[in-house]
Amino acid sequence: MKKIVHAKKLFEKHSTGVLLFPYVLLFTMFIIIPVVAAIALSFTYFNTIEAPEFIGMKNYIRLLTSDEVFMKKVLPNTITYSVIVGVGGYLLSFFLAWSLAQITKVPRTILAIIIYSPSMTGGVLISTIWSVIFNGDKSGYLNYILLNLGIIDRPILWLQSDKYLLPIMIIVSLWSSMGIGFLAILAGILNINEELYEAAYIDGVKNRFQEIIYVTIPSAKPQMLFGAVMSIVNAFTSSGVGVALSGSNPTPNYAGQLIVTHIEDFGFIRYEMGYAAAVSVVLLIIIQLSSTGANKLFGSD
Description:
The protein is an all-alpha fold. The chain has one domain (68-298): MetI-like (MetI-like fold), CATH 1.10.3720. Helix content is 72%, strand content 1%. It has a two-stranded antiparallel ribbon. The longest helix is centred in the N-terminal third of the chain and has 40 residues, at 2-41. The radius of gyration is 24 Å and the shape is globular.
């Protein structure tokens, strides 16, 4: 009996560690090791054939001083894309989630599935659907409509244009940005206690806008934080949209080149893995700073 009691106490003492072990193992394998490897490779010249050669800070110096494409095209494109798709997509997610929360269960479920479904489509399907719409010849839906209306007199090469490629990428990304963050915000709003709204109106809340500011957002802060982080990460790590739409990497005249696309260009096309690792470390720092800002805005003490 004493042995059973002792074994039980021993299990209770170490059960937390046992239960956490699979998570720690997977986190180490798929997060810690790749991040450490990327940081280490960023200080080397590595062409995937020869052994990595330590070159110190040269990759970072090159990135900040010599890579004109990164400074003039990639970074501005990424900032523009991330602000509109990240912040705009997040605000749109909240607005749609709040709007769905105001209607009954059956139509809410149907509409939620319709809104969420584009986020499950892969890059191939996205390029197939939108490439038909923005096809550069007369058979493209947009060109066909504009030609018939007399707005343009000849077809426009939408997906090969410096002027139009990035805006089209933003439109496509917003269309498919209502993912798991949108569902989390919707769940958070639906689980708010109705008595809080009643108490708020008794205390002086007069309209729906004040209701959102003083009740909805504070009560759904954990889900809002999760949605914000997911929106930030998805915006900064997007790469396939521009390549899938234009059919090339680099995109035409780097018009749709984002940081991740730049990493893929140097890492998997030019085989400059050391330089690609340096760019990925810079991207990691940007995402971390953005996520920290979101945590300060929506996190709890």
